[in-house]
Design a protein that fits this description.
Elements lengths: L4 H8 L6 H8 L54 H39 L3 H7 L20 E2 L10 H8 L2 H17 L19 H16 L27 H10 L49 H10 L11 H11 L1 E2 L3 E10 L8 E2 L7 E10 L2 E9 L3 E2 L10 H12 L9 E4 L6 H9 L3 E5 L9 H9 L9 E6 L2 E7 L3 E6 L10 E7 L8 H8 L4 E7 H9 L2 H9 L13 H21 L9 H14 L18 E9 L1 H20 L5 H5 L7 E6 L4 E2 L6 H7 L3
Parallel strand pairs: 3-8, 8-9
Antiparallel strand pairs: 1-2, 3-5, 4-5, 5-6, 6-7, 9-12, 10-11, 11-12, 13-14, 15-16, 16-17
Helix pairs in contact: 3-13, 5-17, 6-7, 7-18
Length: 723
């Protein structure tokens, strides 16, 4: 039966209550249920109390008359005190955040007004606004005893062997894991195991030795560049290069390995981020007697539920972006952990970004038009003279990976603070981190100083704390000041510097000064050309001289010397880059790991002085490295009989035993030994005359380069075998 219109409209209407009224209602003590009483007469004075909420047993029609007063003795204490206190605390937090926001807005407004006032002034008035350098009495942070980087190579490692040093960063267990997962991936893709009339490419299982040979080919191609990888397997031409790769691996096998190469398990889900593996428990001790073990993250044991179908797995990967680089695990995590174990950085380190070239379709790549590499993966690294000690990946979609965000810092500032806290601590020596204007800020430098870490770098004319005078000088008067003009100010224990060179350079530092004689260092400089930016400012100092010794700020000199630690890693990688064109999105990062692992191994040899420090030392180190890798091809059983050929009879220069007869003889002896152990007696004819004794032959297969009997079926049996 339909409800009357009047009652339905009355039931749907609810009394309007404000937020303050709700708090007042919830703060009232709960009443015990009472019997229904006749409504009281309304009082002459208007009630200031809000209407009470109707209980569950009340009628559907709200009462328009005021409710009865609560009894003098409530039966129980109010049960809503906990939620009320929580609500009040939330309100107080909102008020604090509102006050903080208001403070920031007030600072920004005051800063904008100060900048607007200074912009209206002329150059002479602006100069009067600045402080003299003698008045900027800054007390710098003392980093203590200066340290040089030290290696921590285990005593059982030969420091003169490039492959032994590389095994510190890519241990032998990784090659076994890659071989197993590559075989699993080939099986999951239904790779053909025999040639067909449509395709001669087929697959047979690989092992760790063949993976080493593949990596050696990568290093070989990085040194000996060719426009196409198929050129390495071409027949030698007159007056042309002769490559040694075909002696170690065929072209079809190389293409198959690149096609099915897989680091992680093909059917596993992306793992959760593990922050504990990044930070070593204690700083490594140099020159230890026993090898320093690497603590690799434990791999989860596979279970039937882990092997999902491809469709379900792809959905899970899209929904869980915790580790978008999970296809590189455990190789990437092991490499990052090893980088922190085998070198103790010196006093000066640097933080900068690394670009890994990739133009494929990926939501994790970044575009940086002003960089030498315009598009690719961005990696933030902490390095010491080219040795990458720690790094964190960055994504355009997910941001900086494994980031611990600090409330008062930006994401990049939080990343710098997170890396700085990973550095080993020493009681009498502290670190000084150099960085460019992409990372620097006054709050970051202030926090680093409180944690006994010095910092220096260039900065941008922004931020509410940065002096307005330096901002105006940079934006309006950078081409009008004389060369060497310097202004400085102190904000929150950080020295803010402005120095006129070709342009007005802005910087921050906690380890430099401007008021002492040691704040300047004489350096020889060449006169810039007339076509350089703002050359007229600098050329006035030189006059007619092509070279002159000038006084430079120590902050500028130190920044130029120590900021290039990450750039050195890029410079070592660029001429011998192993990367080739790839369509799988994680392959470029794999090549970066291989390149950086080789660079770190070379740096260990250079710092430990176990490798000759010559002009081409890095080149010779890489050559020795790929030779050691390619030597593993002797442990890989050749299977040329599986290749399409051409397989033709040839006359061999030496008479040798037939390989097929020898293989049958070995098989017969193994079968007889197994039957003898099992106590099975065989007929004499089967045990002695079933397989003929291996004979000698002058002929064989030219493509397989093996001797074969010409008067029997050995040629056919050899090329039709399946294993």
């Amino acid at each position: 039966m339909a409800e009357p219109t009047e009652r339905r409209s009355t039931r749907l209407r609810k009394p309007k209550t404000h937020f303050d009224d709700r708090i007042l209602q919830s703060s009232k003590p709960s009443e015990a249920p009472k019997a229904v009483e006749p409504p009281l007469e309304p009082s002459t004075k208007p009630s200031t109390k809000p209407p009470a909420k109707s209980s569950a047993k009340s009628s559907t029609k709200p009462s328009t008359k005021p409710s009865a007063k609560p009894s003098a003795k409530p039966s129980t204490k109010p049960s809503a005190l906990g939620p009320i206190e929580q609500l009040c605390s939330q309100i107080e937090e909102l008020d604090i955040e509102e006050d903080t926001t208001n403070d920031k807005k007030a600072k920004k407004k005051a800063k904008a007004e100060e900048v607007a006032r200074l912009v209206k002034l002329g150059l002479e008035d602006i100069i009067k606004e600045g402080k003299s350098l003698e008045d900027v009495q800054f007390e710098p942070f003392d980093p203590g005893h200066h340290r040089e980087p030290k290696v921590n190579i285990p005593s059982n490692i030969d420091p003169t062997d490039p492959l032994a040093l590389l095994d510190l960063f890519i241990p032998p267990e990784i090659y076994i894991t890659i071989a197993e997962n590559t075989n699993l991936y080939a099986i999951s893709k239904n790779a053909p195991t025999a040639p067909t009339k449509f395709s001669t490419r087929y697959w047979w299982p690989t092992n760790e030795h063949e993976i080493r040979v593949l990596f050696g080919i990568f290093y070989y191609m990085g040194i000996h560049r060719e426009p196409n990888y198929t050129v390495y397997w071409e027949k030698p031409k007159p007056n042309g290069p002769i490559h040694s790769i075909p002696k170690h691996m065929t072209l079809n096998r190389y293409e198959n390995l690149r096609r099915f190469l897989h680091i992680s398990k093909p059917a596993q889900q992306p793992p959760e981020p593990c922050m504990e593996t990044q930070q070593p428990s204690e700083p490594p001790k140099p020159h230890t007697e026993a090898p320093l073990p690497l603590q690799y993250p434990e791999q989860p044991q596979p279970c039937p539920e882990d092997f999902l179908e491809e469709e379900e797995l792809s959905e899970d990967q899209e929904q869980d972006p915790a580790l978008w680089w999970w296809k590189l695990e455990p190789m990437l995590n092991n490499f990052r952990t090893a980088c922190q174990h085998y070198l103790i950085p010196g006093t000066e380190v640097a933080i900068d970004e690394i670009m890994v070239r990739f133009r494929g379709r990926s939501s994790n790549t970044c575009k940086m038009p002003n960089k030498p590499i315009k598009q690719g993966y961005k990696i933030f690294a902490l390095a010491d003279n080219g040795y990458v000690w720690h790094f964190q990946l960055s994504s355009r979609l997910h941001g900086i990976a494994e980031l611990e965000k600090a409330n008062e810092l930006t994401p990049t500032g939080s990343m710098v603070l997170q890396m700085a806290r990973l550095l080993p601590k020493f009681p009498d020596s502290h670190y000084v981190i150099y960085m460019d204007n992409y990372f620097t800020s006054i709050p970051l430098f202030s926090i680093l100083r409180k944690e006994n870490i010095g910092a220096a770098g260039t900065t941008r004319p922004s931020g509410t704390d940065f002096p307005a005078l330096l901002i105006v000088l940079r934006k309006k008067w950078s081409t009008k000041l004389d060369w060497g003009t310097t202004y400085a100010d102190i904000v929150d224990g950080v020295l803010c510097i402005g120095w006129q060179d070709n342009n007005f350079v802005l910087g921050l530092s906690t380890v430099h000064t401007v008021h002492e004689a040691s704040s300047w260092v004489p350096l020889g400089r060449n006169r810039p050309s007339t076509t350089s930016t703002n050359a007229n400012i600098t050329r006035k100092v030189f006059g007619d001289l092509p070279f002159r010794v000038l006084d430079i700020l120590t902050w500028v000199d130190d920044y130029n010397h120590h900021m290039n630690s990450v750039d050195l890693a890029n410079q070592h990688r660029q001429p011998y880059d192993t990367q080739k064109i790839a369509y799988r999105t994680w392959i470029p990062l794999l090549h970066w790991i291989l390149d950086q692992a080789a660079i770190n191994a070379y740096k260990l040899a250079a710092v430990g002085k176990t490798w000759p420090n010559e002009h081409s030392a890095h080149l010779e180190f890489r050559r020795a490295l790929y030779r050691r890798f390619l030597d593993y091809s002797q442990f890989v059983e050749p299977q040329l009989w599986k290749e399409p050929g051409p397989h033709n009879w040839i006359e061999r220069p030496k008479r040798q035993s037939c390989v097929m007869c020898c293989k049958k003889e070995r098989l017969r002896k193994r079968v007889l030994a197994q039957h003898k152990e099992a106590g099975v007696e065989l007929f004499k004819e089967i045990a002695t005359n079933n397989v003929k004794r291996p004979g000698l032959s002058w002929s064989g297969c030219g493509f397989c380069d093996v001797p074969l009997c010409k008067t029997s079926s050995c040629f056919k049996d050899w090329h039709s075998q399946k294993g």
